[in-house]
Write a structure and sequence with these properties.
With about 325 residues, the chain is α/β, with parallel strands linked by helices. Helix content is about 40%, strand content about 15%. The protein contains 14 helices and seven strands. The chain binds S-adenosylmethionine.
Length: about 325
């Protein structure tokens, strides 16, 4: 495992930062969970805005190891920053173990950090040749192991479902024909050749395949669903949730979760009229999604598809069921 020391200047540019801080409506002394610490951009802003304590989670050991160096010492004084290497789906247990439940706010900023993308050896980027790795937690199956061992149909399913790639079968076929693959540049070349690529294309055709493999290996959508439920169990009544997503697959999960939990899902139908009598809403004040301002997009084009959804926890018990489809 490599620990790279990063300066704040090189780090991730936080997305929708002001909007997240505003959405959490911090009161002096609040305890806030930053479920995706990354390069600490949100954590710094939350502490500066008056949070008494920030509990930062990240499944990436490098993010946790670098964390203390990314937050000014003055903001960490008095134990105001706690960093935990853990998946956010397990936040409730980790918070309980430290006697920190319930919390006043939870924020999640879903996806990869620029630190992960920019470090070639992590294997997340096709623009930066590196080993085919893509594991956020630096453990488990690598992208190379998946691509070299999985059945063609399984590779096609992943690329279709998580990359929304209309020609997933063609890409999977080309991958299997080119095995073994070991480098991100090799994979990118195989996908571009399969799909056709010419200079001046709006986006690289390999983008969707890389996204898909990353989401699959890290079980990112399952983690997001479980993380939302863990946040629901961890927030106090009146506590706030602020979730930033990076693409529509993720945003849809958050939208459906908040719609169901706030009682806005038409739970009944002609055939199931009584389904409306479900649990009491566990969230309220679900706000319309926010997108980055023109100013933010000019500074950070990577924020293009980001969306922020916020809501306030009610005093009803957490729901004990899967997200309504
Ligand atoms: C987009 S970055 C967050 C950037 C951060 N908001 C900032 O301002 O620097 C997402 C981070 O979440 C982490 N992450 C993704 N899924 C996770 C999960 N299920 N549990 C914990 N951390 C996760 C990634 O390792 C990455 O460091």
């Amino acid at each position: 495992m490599t620990h790279t020391t990063l300066s704040v200047g090189e780090a991730h540019v936080p997305v929708l930062l002001e909007e997240v801080v505003a959405g959490l409506a911090i009161t002096q002394g609040d305890t806030i969970v930053d479920a995706t610490f990354g390069a600490g951009g949100y954590a710094r802003a939350l502490l500066a805005a008056g949070a008494g304590r920030v509990i930062g989670f990240d499944r990436d050991p490098d993010a946790i190891a670098n964390g203390p160096s990314l937050v000014p010492h003055s903001l960490q004084e008095g134990g105001r920053l706690t960093l935990i290497e853990e998946r956010f789906s397990l936040m409730e247990q980790a918070l309980r173990d430290r006697d920190l439940l319930p919390v006043d706010g939870v924020t999640m900023d879903i996806g990869v950090s620029s630190m992960q993308l920019d470090q070639a050896e992590r294997g997340f980027a096709f623009s930066n040749d590196g080993p085919l790795d893509m594991r956020m937690s630096q453990s488990g199956q690598t992208a190379a192991e998946f691509l070299n061992e999985a059945e063609e149909a399984e590779i096609a399913r992943v690329i279709r479902d998580y990359g929304e790639e209309p020609r997933a079968r063609k890409v999977a076929h080309a991958i299997v024909a080119a095995r073994p693959l070991t480098r991100t540049a090799e994979l990118a070349a195989v996908v571009r050749k399969a799909l056709g690529h010419h200079a001046g294309m709006k986006s690289d055709p390999a983008t969707r395949t890389f996204q898909a493999i990353r989401i699959h290996l890290n079980a990112e959508l399952d983690e997001l669903e479980a993380g939302l439920r863990a946040a629901e169990r961890s927030l106090r009544a009146g506590g706030r949730l602020a979730v930033v997503t990076f693409h529509s697959l993720e945003d849809r999960i958050v939208k459906r979760f908040l719609r169901a939990r706030s009682g806005a899902t038409p739970a009944g139908s002609r055939h199931r009229p009584l389904a409306a009598a479900g649990p009491s809403p566990s969230f309220t004040s679900v706000a319309k999604p926010l997108s980055p301002s023109d100013g933010e997009l000019a500074r950070n084009p990577r924020a293009r598809s980001a969306r922020l959804r916020t809501a306030v926890r009610t005093d009803a018990p957490a729901w004990d069921q899967e997200i309504a489809a």
